[in-house]
Task: inverse folding
């Protein structure tokens, strides 16, 4: 996406967020308006991909954890309630795997590692291939 379109969609999402936050909507309290504003902001950013999707998800969590606990006094956990899903052990395991894969890919270590593994296994690969196929008649 070109820079001009990114700026346009970022401006549009910020304007929509601000307009919904401060516009009086009948039947909605401040917490509901704020949640709707964050939803519209996320919708525009996700559909347009003006910023990467993972950054959009962090922006959503940051906005909700900063603004929403003020309007919901019953929320005793504060920002921890919004950030808990991002830091569960499974999510951190995935995140660590993605970071390692990206690091290996950026230095071309993934190809080196795959080649090293294939070199060690390649000695027995033809024999394993023939013995493993049902069509070869050796099973």
Result:
């Amino acid at each position: 996406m070109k820079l001009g379109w990114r700026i346009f969609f970022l401006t549009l999402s910020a304007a929509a967020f601000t307009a919904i936050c401060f516009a009086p909507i009948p039947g909605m309290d401040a917490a509901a308006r704020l949640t709707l504003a964050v939803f519209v902001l996320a919708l525009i950013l996700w559909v347009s991909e003006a910023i990467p999707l993972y950054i959009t998800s962090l922006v959503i969590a940051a906005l909700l954890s900063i603004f929403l606990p003020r309007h919901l006094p019953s929320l005793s956990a504060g920002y921890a309630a919004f950030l808990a899903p991002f830091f569960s052990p499974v999510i951190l395991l995935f995140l660590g795997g993605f970071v390692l894969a990206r690091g290996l890919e950026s230095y071309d270590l993934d190809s080196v590692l795959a080649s090293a593994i294939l070199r060690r296994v390649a000695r027995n690969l033809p024999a394993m291939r023939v013995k493993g196929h049902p069509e070869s008649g050796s099973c």
